[in-house]
Amino acid sequence: MTPRIPNDPSHRTAWVGLGLVLVTFLVYARVFNCGFINYDDPDYVTANPHVENGLTIQGIVWAFSHAHSSNWHPLTWISHMLDCQLWGLNPLGPHLVNVGFHALNALLFFLLLKKMTGALWRSALVAGLFAWHPLHVESVAWVSERKDVLSTFFGFLTLWAWVRYAQGKKTSNIEHRTSNVQWCYWSAVFFFALGLMAKPMVVTLPFVLLLLDWWPLKRFTIHDSRNSPAIQQSNNPTIHLLFEKLPFFALAAGSAVVTFFVQKKSGAISSLAQAPLSVRLENAAVSYVAYLAKMFWPADLALIYPYHPDVGTGKLVLAVLLLTVLTGLILALARRYRFLATGWGWYLVTLLPVIGLVQAGPQMMADRYTYVPLIGVFIALVWSVALVVERWRQMQIPATLVAISILAACATATARQLRYWTDTRTLSEHTLRVTSDNAVAHFILANALMEQGDAVVAAEHYTEAIRLKPDYQDARLNLALALQREGKTDEAMTELQGSLQADPSFAKAHSALATLLSQQGQTASAIARYREALRLDPEYADAANNLAWLLATCPDAAYRDGPEAIRLAEQAVQLSGKMADAALLDTLAAALAEAGRFDEAVQTAGRAREQALAGHQSQLAEKIARRQDLYRQHQPYRSGSN
């Protein structure tokens, strides 16, 4: 017997919501075959020991007490830790979670918009555009952008609780008011705090609440005081509406201050000398329009859109003119068509934190920044078209067919865009095809080529990245490593020395140069460079480990220092967070042996060998075993010996 779908509106809502979720998973099915991306994913997951160790008390404490990767978002770190706890470093797990959150966000917003407006199909169309628009691929397919989908999840829960609060205040049931309204209010505050701890992008949510108060909640209005002063006084509780949002504004202000200082300390924020205010304002105006253009025609989507100070006079004039005309027109129609003001205001306000007025990062704009802002434009467009269809009933069927076609086109474009997220090389090569003068994309591609063992071609892309951005220190460092892998040691050393001349505080370059000097037998210079790297960055675990190895195993007794090597080796283990890392334990065992603590050296070497075998590092395990035999004979290990 074929089941009959009930006609009851509540059942219809349930069926639409279920279809929205299922189609979203179907559209994003290709992402389950994608891997990690070597841009940000190492910092967030694959090379972050605090995350790799899974969900631990120490990891949770670290998440709340440390700012890492230019951000403080402890809930995002904890979610990545939980991924590693459940799936290890299998990319399928975090991709599945990202898609799950994205589908849940689409469902939440559909139900929220339906609850506020009572419009089933308009709400479904807006939610479908949100779920399947290709501009949102970056937020979902990129594991590091868990913060986008997670913060939006808590943001939508905030809106849901707020709507319950606002609608509850209108009820005539006094007992219902007192029992539920305050609970909904403080639930909204709580969810907002969680959203800020996932990503501070939701910092503009208090302004969104005010927009929702205007429409569709209609908690206040704007009257002409010349015609109806009494109505204005009695029906415009603007002060009260602002007052009730004070906890939200306080949380938003605190989050903004923390984010600014964290990013400034990490060097992520450009100074006014690097990016003058006039340039930022020009870029903001052009970006507002560029996002709209990509919404209507999502072609040439890229991982990185390089920042160019000169946006062009023509583009700037056109952008300012378009924004001025649109804003003026919408303000003129705001009283009659409230949804226009709410939709346009939503777009302008929620995009404000990432529009470039505070320039953070090398990008001019980013697809991921549209994840929440475009919802406002979707609302304004869908409700505008619906208004036309209501007046001309003969347009209903054509409008429905157009809406279905647009959703199908979005879903198809999203599935096509996901092909580029298969791996780092594919994504960066695509980015280079659709952008120009993109130093960061050359750098990312070069890193991918290095991982694949192609140092020659990688060096070419590092060189191009440096040509486009002469102060690109990470590219200079990696170029030196590529040259070293090619056997061009002198050229590598020259590159590192040039890097240090440009920036003497670049700790990684000091450490890399120390390694080259050590290989050439210049031990004293190597030790000095390692110490300088640690002075500049006291938490540089690799430099501590390399210096410990040198002090423990150097053939020249004049440079050996067992106790200092132990201190540095233990420091490296602690700083890295990799208490069971085979290479780090191998260094610690060598240091213990140099200090004459052979029994401890044997035990530590045994643990190192077990970890090497568990990690399928058979060659390292064999070397550790040979060193362990020396320790059993009360002999320390010397570099260069078998």
Q: Helix count, per DSSP? A: 31
Q: Give the proportion of residues in helices.
A: 55-70%
Low-confidence stretches: 1-6, 225-235
For the CA atoms, what is the radius of gyration?
29 Å
Largest sheet descriptor: 2 strands, antiparallel
Q: In CATH terms, what is the fold-level topology of the domain at 437-538?
A: Serine Threonine Protein Phosphatase 5, Tetratricopeptide repeat
Walk me through what this model shows:
By secondary structure, this protein is an all-alpha fold. Among the domains are: 437-538, Serine Threonine Protein Phosphatase 5, Tetratricopeptide repeat (Alpha Horseshoe), CATH 1.25.40.10; 541-642, Alpha Horseshoe (Serine Threonine Protein Phosphatase 5, Tetratricopeptide repeat). The chain is 69% helix and 1% strand. The protein is built from 31 helices and 2 strands. It has helices at 9-27, 41-46, 49-52, 57-65, 74-87, 92-117, 120-132, 137-141, 146-168, 174-196, 205-214, 229-235, 238-243, 246-266, 277-296, 313-333, 338-351, 374-391, 396-417, 424-434, 439-451, 455-468, 473-485, 489-502, 507-519, 523-536, 541-553, 562-576, 582-594, 598-614, 618-632; strands at residues 305-306, 363-365. The protein has a two-stranded antiparallel ribbon. Helix 5 packs across helix 6, helix 6 packs antiparallel against helix 7 and helix 7 (120-132) runs parallel beside helix 19. The protein is elongated, with a radius of gyration of 29 Å. The N and C termini lie far apart (77 Å). Residues 1-6 and 225-235 have low confidence and may be disordered.
